[in-house]
Amino acid sequence: MSIRIYNTLSREKETFVPGDPERVTMYACGPTVYNYAHIGNARPAVIFDLLHRVLSNRFPKVVYARNITDVDDKINAAAAQEGVSIDVITRRYADAYHADMAALGVGRPTVEPRATDHIDAIIAMIERLISLDHAYEAEGHVLFNVENFPDYGQLSRRDRREMIAGARVEVAPYKKHPGDFVLWKPSSEDLPGWDSPWGRGRPGWHIECSAMSASHLGEIIDIHAGGQDLVFPHHENEIAQSRCAHGTDTFARYWLHNGFVTVEKRKMSKSLGNTLIVHELLKQWPGEALRYLLLSAHYRQPLDWSEKALEQAQSTLDRLYGLLRDHAPAAASDEVAPDPAVTEALEDDLNTPTALAALNGLARQLAQAESGEQALLARRLRATGALIGLLQQAPADWFAQRQVAVQLSEATIEDLIQQRQQARQARDFAEADRIRDQLADQGIVIKDGPERTTWEVAAR
RNA sequence: GGCUAGGUGGCAGAGUGGUUAUGCAGCGGCCUGCAAAGCCGUGUACCUCGGUUCGACUCCGGGCCUAGCCUCCA
Questions:
Q1: pTM score
Q2: For residue A405, what pLDDT band results from cuts at 50, 70 and 90?
């Protein structure tokens, strides 16, 4: 079995063949850090983290770069509004991004380049594009010359002429061609800027990814990934810049794009004001439940977010963690291979719904297993979870995290359970039920086991 | 207007030219003082109209509907 992925460039599922199996390279467009990430921003982070895991399971070395865009007009606006410098803004939200993504089980990429650390590389790349007649200077701006790149539009399947006809924005007068886009733009005194051959300024939006990708991964990379809305113009422009600067006929061999998270079937976006902030969601829900939900639909499909779906994800995880709690030795899982059905599903264009189905099938096997087989199956369940980025907590921790919302102390709860036990032994069931109801009102669910009574915080 | 993707059981969501997805909920059973949890069992699902085929939810064509991109956006 080989890994197969859907390539936006060909609009087909293809067998993944890296340029160099000893060093697989992937780049994903990361956040622009001017605000907290919403759940739609989290989707690609989770999906491409999973891709990183799946590739790493197969290849000895995978270099995964996910950038942080820390120079951008939206950042400037946020800084101006608060009256602080941009690095106050970028540091705050980069830190929050890391914390939030960690809560979703997203591992750190191999490298996390920042645009401001690559200004020299960006300037060098622009100079090269100018010298090759792929870019020109105009009124302090440097623009990419779309006319000189015949393949422009290949990724998004757009025709340049049609794009002009359908253009809804006014074309800047200094552009030679309406489709030309900015590589470098001038900064006024009050804006962040760097000295360049074209005066003090800052990079355009697309050039940073091209420069950082080349710096860390090479001129031709295996995989470039991002959200569907980046296909045009961002990725189209990256291809144009990179190929023209390097004189290559390929920038990335495979292009992956994730679908949107929707709310009531509408795209989640800042302009619609229907964003759900990960930072906020994490105050109410376990990050792992968010991850499970994000993986419950195939990455290229839209994912409709709802509280109900989140509850379902949590219920399912409750069952899985319950099984691990009841059967699992806490032992390490690294000696056990993940369930082949799960590996196979993931290697088939990251088919996470099928992978989760197989994970649940494995759980069922565990639930039904003879006692002699339970330990092995439990370890396999955990090892399989590790590949997906799920089920890595201690079960007790999973169940314990909901206690923050509970008013009663553990001692009080234990005490009430004791009282109930005594009532039960006295066959005073009215009293026993009263105590049970009292606890239930506080969100505590009682479970009478053969040995002893346990409790946990109810799923809401 | 141009280009995409999609319409599957109560809900979410895979997949397949003829055979059980899976999860959540529901229902029946076991267990329990009664429950809960857990386990077992359980569902005549594939937008519409034509076509291809021995056979289509699955392939092809038309239609209807939904969402997205073409502008900052994951």
A1: 0.93
A2: low
